[in-house]
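User: Predict the structure for this protein chain, please.
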Amino acid sequence: MNARWMTAALVALLSGLSVRAAEEPAPWAPPPAEAVRKDVFAWLAGQKPEAAVRASAEKLWASLPQRPQATELLSRAAETFSLADPRAKKLVERCWKPYVPGPVDKEEWLRDPKTPPLAAKNLRLYYARWLAQQSLFDEALEQLAGLEPGDVIDPASLLFYRALAHYRLADREPGLKAAERLLANSQQCPRRYKALGELMREDLKRLEDETLDHISRRMDDIRRRLALGRGGPKVRKIEDGVVASLDKLIKEIEDQLQEQEGAAGSSRQSSSPAPESRPLGGKGPGEVVQRNVGSKSGWGNLPPKEREEAMQQVGREFPAHYREVIEQYFRRLAAEGEKAP
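Assistant: Here is the predicted structure, written as structure tokens:
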């Protein structure tokens, strides 16, 4: 083995390690409290505040616990930003109150390159935390988009609320990714984040598209959006997706029932077939009964007897609360049928 070959092999090995390392997300950890305080007061000095504002900030940080959690540091930083910036003051005060149904401000100034990154990124996280707590998960994800743990004072909250928003929207892969990153440094997580993060991770691992579990979650999401006054094209798109998924599921159950009926009919046939030369008797009129088996969209208009058989099949194979999902589906189709001309 010559030296040149060994050198080439070593370079290739190191390159491969570098690529794998680049693919893995960087580890995260909250910054020290003193470093956060220093950065925040450096930002404040850049705003050239009046003496009264500086005194208020000093008082705010003087009451900080000896070993504060990152969540508390984020809140103190946001309040300090609000002392010197009217836009931050308006945002922080909004986050102290419950959500009132209506339009949600995107706070575009937080993405303005002229806004100092320390304030912009941490206020986006502060705002997203409030949005998620108000069940405004789409809006929360918009604020969290592009943020990395190293960008903010409270990286655990960033990852937790990102995982929570995706979890509530039934977004399996991004939810799992955020939960995994959160739990990769579980020692630095608040206890509630760790416990809920583990539950979300395990639940998302079992989540499969087009199952009753997945359909039920999407229906919960529709109810959430409507309760928040979020009707419109997006909700109708989700509703259409739910109906399409239920159409597919009902069709599969109906096919299973037909196969079972076919197998049962075959087992009831006589073991000694009638001779070919001997006609079989029969008194039926020879007419074919036309049955309503559904509209073009699927199998939602099953006859009552077959609908009940399908419901019983669901009850045998799935948890009982999924029956409500199917019943809602039938009720909706019935209502749509009444509205149709």
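Residues 233-268 form the longest helix (36 residues).
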